Amino acid sequence: MVNREKIEEGVRLLLEGIGEDTGREGLLETPQRIARMYEELFAGMDQDAAEPLSRQFEVRDGGIVLEKDITFYSVCEHHMLPFFGKAHVAYLPDGHVAGLSKLARTVEVYARRLQLQERLTAQVADALMENLHPKGVMVLLEAEHMCMAMRGIKKPGSRTVTVAARGAFERDAALQENFYRMLDR
Ligand code: ZN
Q1: Cα 43 to Cα 138: distance, rounded to the nearest angstrom
Q2: Which residues belong to any copy of the GTP cyclohydrolase I domain (predicted)?
Q3: Residue 142 to residues 21, 70, 94, 112: CA-CA distances in angstroms?
């Protein structure tokens, strides 16, 4: 659970730090507003992906399951600015599958924390391996980082792509090819 009081105090200090007048009308409610917003943006800190993935259904001879274009929003831990984009999550079932919405839910659990895109990608892949015990998992994230767009080298529109392959997807190049072909469709 986030500590709202600490966030409010911190936001007041930040405002003072940038030379703002914390008493002016537009800013009066800002610390509370940000504290409430952070509760939502970082809700994943209190959540575990094992829960959404615990409901499983048996399947026989399941082929690749791919959930693509899962929109996600996260916050980079280096600048505390948003990064957001699409996640594509695939796995090769070994006897059971999870409900499709649970793949998006798993992305959500890990996105709603301070993150690095590389770690987010790996955590989603590992959570599926651990909870669903599939033959393999492949996760690809493409995201735009506001810390790249708004500051520093200022490259708006550029996207960062990260990939994590586990199990059969790691070993089998043909399976990886299948994944990329399914993405292109
Ligand atoms: Zn950043």
Answers
A1: 25
A2: 7-183
A3: 38, 10, 27, 16
52: Cβ–Cβ under 8 A, 6 or more apart, which residues? 98, 102, 105, 106, 109
**Which residues line ion ligand 1, judged by CB < 5 Å?**
76, 78-79, 147
147 labelled ligand-binding: yes
Question: Cα–Cα distance between 53 and 5 in angstroms, integer?
Answer: 34
pTM above 0.70, yes or no: yes
pLDDT at 61 over 80: no
Task: Give residue 27 CA to ligand 1 midpoint distance, Å.
Answer: 25
How would DSSP label each residue in 10-48?
HHHHHHHHTT--TTSGGGTTHHHHHHHHHHHHTGGGG--
pLDDT attached to residue 151: 86
* Percentage of residues in the chain having pLDDT higher than 90: 83
CB-CB contact of 41 with 81 (8 Å): no
